[in-house]
């Protein structure tokens, strides 16, 4: 337990010292939100089904934060630790493998949560109204985060080198951002692309978060919950089979 | 009688019997047996690919052997791995750490992995000072030099005051001065009552540092003894070396009394003999008669290198 806590503390400091992660999570996303606000303004928009732009956009950006941390941090860090022999070094100590994974999840979860709160704080002056109750929001956020973290572990387990993982990550990340409705409303896409979006896991995170943030309740969002739970189970199962310490 | 048996077992830090490890169709370790006594520095010497790293990693529990038994402090590294890892310290051959972790943080982190409280927890300087890292406590890992990183990894292997220290190719990549300092350090660790198990492909390291050496080649132990006894097993031969540019006939060296063997590499000649002073006198006489000028004439005592050469017919360094 002491090992787990110390490792979590160390991973927290390492996250903060990694400027790319800090920049993307805490600076780039909020800046992008401000930029999008300047472009779209905050009128209730037809493309958003008459919901104020900012109210739609914040959950979408939180989903982008989840996806980027899951894919780049969890997926990337894991394969670079393995490649550099850090995981192997841990294996000759009494530290349990589960502690390494759990501390990673905990740190990235907390950082993603902070970035979500930051986005909501920045969106307030733009007139963000949050209709959802905190429990549904935390629940939706947690399911979205955990399902994507297990996806991150899957990517980190499948590929041999951090370099390959990085290329795969970038491809996966950008196709998800643009095809999930997280950055661009799905109604702006062609019907064919909208069809494709149904196969993008992030779409369900975006929908689930929007339902929670806009106060539609988690009951109405059960298809998203179902899809993400199955997605979580598949990724967790496959990555636990594919995972290698070296 | 039983008491003696137990005592004997307690004196053994590591015992390996019939260890086998295959990689697909290649047998990397081929039925080796040896014991390591408590409190000794035990070395495995051999060329790259001899099976040293495989052996050490089987003992550490990182690899699952295909045959044989291993006991470390009486524990099975595969079945009782977690218990064992509380009591051993390991420095891996190629190892890394987080780039942006400070030395102090790394020490604290690794210390937290063990049940026992680190004896240095209140004063890390005491652990790190003999390793020459006292002024590096706040430095990031990536700013350390190769030698400093290596020494930090030894510190990390020592944080929990382990009973056995494993070192795989400890001084590879260090300059000669750093290497000697490292040897001194390892001896001090042994003198504190620890057992040290190391692998090396430097015969000088094995000779200077180890109490006992196992010479490994193609996954088998060819010889196992103290460096002095291994060298003595060659019959106490020394080597007389000189350079000779003038034309000569090899036979005229071979016929010098007490010369057992002659070796030539270009213009360099080596005469092997257990009576080197007599050979030397005779050699100088003949040089005088023939008008040769012998350059760089000197006598070298036999080394583990010669032991390896005798056992395998090959030089160690190739």
Automatic annotation (TrEMBL), chain A:
Q: Which residues form the signal peptide?
A: none
The residues covered by the ABC transmembrane type-2 domain are 20-246
Asked if the record carries the keyword Transmembrane, the reply is yes
Picking any one GO molecular function of the record gives:
ABC-type transporter activity
Q: Which UniProt keywords apply?
A: Cell membrane, Membrane, Transmembrane, Transmembrane helix, Transport
Predominant place of localization: membrane
Matching Pfam families: ABC2_membrane
Choose one Gene Ontology CC annotation of this protein and give it. Answer: ATP-binding cassette (ABC) transporter complex
Q: How does it sit in the membrane?
A: Multi-pass membrane protein
Q: Does the keyword Cytoplasm apply?
A: no
Q: Which family does it belong to?
A: Belongs to the ABC-2 integral membrane protein family.
Q: What is this protein called?
A: Transport permease protein
Native source species: Fraserbacteria sp. (strain RBG_16_55_9)
């Amino acid at each position: 337990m002491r090992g787990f806590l110390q490792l979590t503390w160390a991973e927290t400091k390492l996250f903060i010292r990694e400027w790319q992660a800090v920049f993307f999570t805490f600076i780039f996303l909020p800046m992008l939100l401000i930029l999008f606000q300047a472009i779209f303004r905050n009128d209730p928009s037809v493309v958003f089904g008459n919901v104020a732009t900012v109210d739609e956009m914040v959950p979408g950006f939180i989903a982008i934060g989840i996806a980027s941390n899951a894919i780049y941090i969890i997926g990337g860090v894991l394969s670079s630790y393995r490649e550099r022999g850090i995981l192997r070094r841990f294996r000759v100590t009494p530290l349990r493998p589960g502690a390494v994974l759990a501390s990673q999840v905990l740190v990235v979860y907390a950082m993603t949560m902070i970035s979500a709160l930051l986005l909501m704080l920045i969106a307030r002056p733009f007139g963000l109204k949050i209709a959802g109750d905190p429990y549904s929001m935390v629940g939706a956020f947690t399911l979205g985060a955990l399902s994507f973290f297990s996806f991150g572990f899957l990517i980190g387990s499948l590929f041999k080198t951090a370099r390959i993982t990085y290329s795969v990550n970038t491809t996966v990340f950008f196709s998800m951002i643009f095809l999930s409705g997280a950055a661009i409303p799905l109604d702006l896409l062609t019907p064919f692309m909208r069809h494709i979006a149904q196969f993008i896991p992030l779409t369900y995170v975006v929908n689930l978060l929007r339902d929670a943030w806009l106060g539609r309740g988690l009951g109405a969002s059960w298809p998203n919950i179902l899809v993400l739970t199955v997605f979580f189970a598949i990724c967790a199962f496959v990555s636990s089979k594919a995972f290698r310490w070296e | 009688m039983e008491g003696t048996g137990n005592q004997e077992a307690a004196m053994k830090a590591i015992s390996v019997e019939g260890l086998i490890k295959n990689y697909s169709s290649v047998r990397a370790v081929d039925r080796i047996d040896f014991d390591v006594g408590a409190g000794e520095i035990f070395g495995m010497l051999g060329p790259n690919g001899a099976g040293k790293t495989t052996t050490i990693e089987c003992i550490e529990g990182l690899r699952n052997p295909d045959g044989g038994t291993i006991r470390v402090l009486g524990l099975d590294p595969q079945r009782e791995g977690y218990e064992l890892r509380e009591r051993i310290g390991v420095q891996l051959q190629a190892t890394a750490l987080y780039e942006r972790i400070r030395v102090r943080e790394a020490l604290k982190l690794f210390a937290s992995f063990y049940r026992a409280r680190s004896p240095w927890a209140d004063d890390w300087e005491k652990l790190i000072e003999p390793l020459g890292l006292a002024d590096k406590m706040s430095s990031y890992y990536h700013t350390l030099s190769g030698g400093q990183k290596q020494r930090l990894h030894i510190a990390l292997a020592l944080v929990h005051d382990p009973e056995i220290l494993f070192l795989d190719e400890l001084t590879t990549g260090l300059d000669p001065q750093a290497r000697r300092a490292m040897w001194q350090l390892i001896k001090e660790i042994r003198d504190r009552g620890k057992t040290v198990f190391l692998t090396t492909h430097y015969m000088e390291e094995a000779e200077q540092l180890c109490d006992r050496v196992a010479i490994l080649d193609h996954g088998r132990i060819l010889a196992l003894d103290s460096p002095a006894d291994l060298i003595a097993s060659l019959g106490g031969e020394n080597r007389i070396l000189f350079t000779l540019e003038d034309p000569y006939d090899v036979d005229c060296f071979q016929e010098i009394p007490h010369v057992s063997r002659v070796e030539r590499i270009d213009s360099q000649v080596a005469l092997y003999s257990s009576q080197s002073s007599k050979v030397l006198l005779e050699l100088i006489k003949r040089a005088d008669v023939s008008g040769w000028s012998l350059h760089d004439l000197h006598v070298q005592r036999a080394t583990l290198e010669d032991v390896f050469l005798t056992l395998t017919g090959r030089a160690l360094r190739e």
